[in-house]
Amino acid sequence: MRYKILILLLLMLISLYALYREYHFSTKKLRMSYQCWSLKNEPELQLLNWFNSTMNSTHVRMRATNWSAPIVWTDTYNESGLKKYYKKHPVSVGLIVFAVGRYLWYYLQNFLISANTFFMVDQRVIIYVMLDDFSYMPFVSLNRHRTLKIFKIKRERRWQDISMMRMKIISEHIADHIQYEVDYVFCMDVDQIFKASYGLEALGDSIAQLHTYWYKESPHKVPYERNELSEAYIPLGEGDFYYHAAVFGGTATQVLKITKECAKGIMNDKKHNIEAIWHDESHLNKYFFLHKPTKLLSPEFCWDLRKNKTPDIETVKLYWNFKNYEFLRHEV
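Structure for RIKEN cDNA 4930402F06 gene, as requested:
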């Protein structure tokens, strides 16, 4: 009789284990369920509900791309329409920033303070800080709906390697946890400061930033990678715009695709001892050449104050901090 009871208990344990293997609860599965239902089940925001058809005549020629992606300027979006939509359909936004070596203590605090003030105000925001030394992490008191997550990363020997390896690191973090925590992701350089509201008008499936110094130039004049052996190669005369890698973003799924493809191109080049002229930015431009972004941000969203403002620049939302490269990139 005793053996029968033991056999029954053993069978019950085996059955429970089999059920656990098939249906066990995990936070990752819960996150995946959240991701499936968060954006896919929301009604799509229509262009007419937020993008103004009338605007300053200065921007008429740069209102939209030839593949119908809107180019966002200060006078092209309806802020009240955006707020109304996202109040009914709230989203969460991730902001990824790297701060390594001297960049950490020289730039990070000002970046975080300004982001806390101006980035996606009243939205749920998670700021992901990738750094190489926890001891230099500044204290920043965050507003409500904001969370800070800090991750230690390996310190590369050259600043060029730091720049290029960030695509790989971002893709790994998005795949591992970020895609289950937020709906949208922005990746930004730390040597920038927010100056004005940087909000819902910037959200979209895949977001590219027009470069301050190249946004008015034709494709044959911009500094694309011209080495035919490089994965970042764009033939002379081809291309659309020159995009700045200091800012890019989109849905978590799209940013995962962007960073994975850029990282793949960078690593393939590395195997053949090739380094693209503008490193990860060259590979980002190649990606957006092949896979057109769904929204472009005007240079107002990433402006160099050393450059005189032209009539088309009305409100600078994010600007370049002073770049002391000789000091900052020495033994980064």
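The chain has eight helices and ten strands.
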